[in-house]
Design goal:
The complex is a heterodimer of chains A (258) and B (416). Chain A has 258 residues and is an alpha/beta fold. Chain A is 29% helix and 23% strand. Chain A has eight helices and eleven strands. The chains are: A alpha/beta (258), B alpha+beta (416).
């Protein structure tokens, strides 16, 4: 029996931040391993639905890096049901786990369809890294998670057909702890890495990934895309400008491959 | 309504992105019951049998002999008999088209996690072993325009999946051949001299290619050196067999003793990475098996925790599994040291090669007797990574082992 809590809008996870950071994360440590806290919090993050400033954010960066916890982000190229079945089974370590679901993906059907010429692969980790590969040498690699994967895939299509550029995609399910050593060989296929995240970029997931990977390989050329540093407007056309989308991924990739 | 169930392969190790579909046991369109043996596939580590999960009619997605991406279904089981176009079995040339259609049916790839805990992701960056089911090519807008201008067709870009401007330019003005790299990345990638004699190409099996790549990786990572000791004997192998208490065999004794000695010599239970020694926490002893059907290294996990009897039992279990071709990926993974015993082949001395991610391998040769003499000798050869240890350590290890084996010999002789 595992407690699973759903917080309908991720914006409100912060109300439970104290329980998460000071209690759930620390109980096992403070009670010398006598107790486990296998709680799962699933919550919907992300915008592009016109829900306004307090119901559209991607706040997971504030909860990344708390020792003793795990943060996952679901995407549509690896069966979310499989992730939950592993999470609620007995195989993986029992620890507080935050699962990020993206609102725009609720209407999407999960499948391993890939753009023509590409194919999806999944690593053997408990919470796998999915990666979109092509048989030819890629010019750049996009690393993203959750809802941004849909935009990244569209950007891959556009970059090839319109700009003659081959881009591979890496989409980890597990955001924290970072599977750094497993990511680096995937990134080295092109040595050019664009990290895309929907939340604000300052001190974000992208910053940490780029710093960690660059420490392993200073030959990498790196760039990142995140939300502009401002609140999310309710007006959808404005919201789409503030949040990263296909066009920004395309233009940043073009910059990266210059 | 016809329901189809995809036949998915379990991803049994992270090295494989594709497997070879060795044979089908059931005809295309044939009726199958649940749990029927459907096919056999060859991964880089083992041959795996594929069974039906449900009852129905089998539809092949690939013909026998095809290289199948691990996440693609090798076929489908439908609830109704196949009719019309579906009845035609896929051929090698049509396999791609039919699977391209079926792969986009929204089938989900759910690879199984390996049971060995966290797994490092191994990615083949050469692209050589990377096979796509779909041979359809895709042409970028720029490339399409240039191809039209120069009257080129997609067929001229065989082997390319994504055709770009540069590919068109390369076809029009072939680039000068690159000078051979000074240090080849792989033994198989060494620039080979032109062959002037007539020859026949014999494709190597996936298993042999994997073995070659693993050995080449071991050679690249280690600076090999070797030490040999000669052990005098009055027939240790025979005596052990006849011993009333320890009715074991020499191989089990050597596995048992070496696994304990590796705790004393941790530099031999390690591997080298960029100026750092990675010492393994466990002693997983690999034992090379080859009776002519392909080399496999069966692994005694936590060998130093096993009793001699447990080692002997495990050796029997592993060799039986090998002979029956039923070694599981777990049974041949994660060795930290290897023993190669060629004593049964009448070898007097040999030079074994250190495997990937290891720092030593012990070679055991056969006992040699002069005609008519009860005294003979055999040699043991330790190949070690000189980056981590040295000749002196290797010699001490071998002499320790020699002494321990002598104790067995004395004990068995005393008992007879």
């Amino acid at each position: 029996m595992r407690p699973v809590v759903e917080i309908m809008f991720g914006d409100f996870t912060m109300l439970a931040a104290d329980q998460w950071i000071n209690h759930a994360a620390k109980f096992e440590y403070m009670y010398a391993g006598q107790v486990k806290v296998p709680v799962v919090i699933r919550t919907a993050m992300g915008g592009k639905r016109g829900y306004g400033a307090t119901h559209s954010q991607s706040l997971e960066k504030h909860l990344l890096g708390v020792p003793g916890t795990r943060v996952l982000a679901l995407h549509h190229r690896f069966d979310p049901a499989e992730i939950y079945s592993r999470l609620l089974g007995d195989v993986v370590a029992q620890k507080p786990t935050l699962v990020i679901e993206n609102k725009v993906m609720y209407g999407e059907k999960a499948s391993s369809d890939a753009p023509e010429g590409f194919k999806w692969f999944h690593s053997g980790h408990d919470f796998p890294i999915s990666y979109l590969r092509c048989a030819d040498q890629p010019d750049a690699t996009i690393l993203c998670y959750g809802g941004m994967l849909m935009d990244a895939e569209k950007a891959v299509e556009q970059l090839f057909s319109e700009y003659d550029i081959i881009v591979e995609v890496i989409c980890p399910t597990q955001l924290y702890p970072l599977q750094r050593d497993a990511l680096i060989p995937l990134v080295r296929r092109s040595n050019k890495l664009l990290v895309v995240e929907e939340g604000h970029g300052f001190c974000g997931y992208g910053s940490e990934v780029l710093a960690s990977l660059y420490e392993l390989d200073t030959q990498l050329k790196i760039r990142r895309v995140a939300s502009y540093p401002q609140h999310i407007p309710s007006a959808k056309p404005l919201e789409l400008v503030v949040l990263p989308g296909v066009q920004r991924i395309v233009s940043e990739t073009l910059e990266l491959t210059k | 309504m016809i329901a189809t169930t995809p036949i998915l392969l379990e991803r049994d190790n992270v090295n494989d992105e594709s497997v070879v579909l060795v044979c089908w046991h059931i005809e295309h369109g044939g009726k199958v019951a649940a749990e029927t043996l459907l096919a056999e596939v060859e991964t880089s580590k083992a041959n795996v049998e594929v069974y039906a999960s449900v009852e129905g009619y089998l539809q092949w997605a690939f013909p026998a002999g095809a290289d199948v991406p691990v996440s693609s279904p090798i076929g489908y089981i439908s609830t109704e008999p196949l009719t019309g176009g579906a009845l035609r079995a896929p051929t090698k040339s049509s396999a791609g088209n039919s699977t391209a259609g079926s792969m986009s049916n929204g089938t989900l790839a759910v690879p199984t996690a390996t049971p060995l805990g966290p797994v490092a992701l191994v990615v083949d960056t050469s692209g050589a072993a990377f096979v796509f089911a779909s041979p359809r090519q895709r042409i970028s807008r720029l490339a399409a325009k240039m191809m039209e201008e120069h009257g080129l067709t997609a067929g001229q870009f065989a082997g390319k999946f994504l055709i770009r401007k540069q590919d068109v330019l390369d076809l029009l003005n072939p680039p000068a051949p690159k000078p051979p790299a000074v240090m080849a990345q792989q033994a198989s990638a060494l620039p080979a001299a032109a062959i002037t004699q007539p020859y026949t190409e014999v494709p190597l099996s996936k298993m042999k290619r994997f073995e070659g790549a693993a050995l080449a990786a071991g050679v690249r990572n280690a600076v090999s050196s070797a030490v040999v000791v000669t052990c005098f004997t009055r027939g240790l192998r025979k005596n052990l067999k006849n011993h009333p208490v320890e009715t074991g065999n020499l191989s089990a004794v050597i596995v048992y003793e070496v696994s304990r000695l590796l705790r004393k010599y941790p530099v031999l239970n390690a591997t080298h990475r960029k100026g750092v020694m990675l010492q393994y926490d466990q002693v997983n002893l690999g034992f090379a098996l080859d009776d002519g059907r392909g080399l496999k290294v069966a692994v005694f996990h936590d060998a130093d925790q096993m009793s001699l009897q447990q080692v002997a039992d495990e050796l029997l279990a592993l060799t039986t599994a090998y002979v029956q071709n039923k070694l599981t990926p777990t049974q041949i993974s994660n060795a930290t040291f290897t023993i190669s015993d060629l004593s049964g082949l009448g070898v007097s001395d040999f030079y074994p090669i250190i495997s990937e991610n290891q720092s030593g391998i012990l070679g055991v040769s056969g006992e040699q007797f002069a005609p008519g003499s009860e005294y003979g000798f055999y040699t043991m050869n330790l190949t070690f990574d000189h980056q981590l240890s040295d000749g002196r350590t290797a010699a001490r290890f071998l002499n320790d082992l020699k002494k321990r084996l002598q104790v067995y010999e004395e004990a068995t002789l005393a008992a007879i």
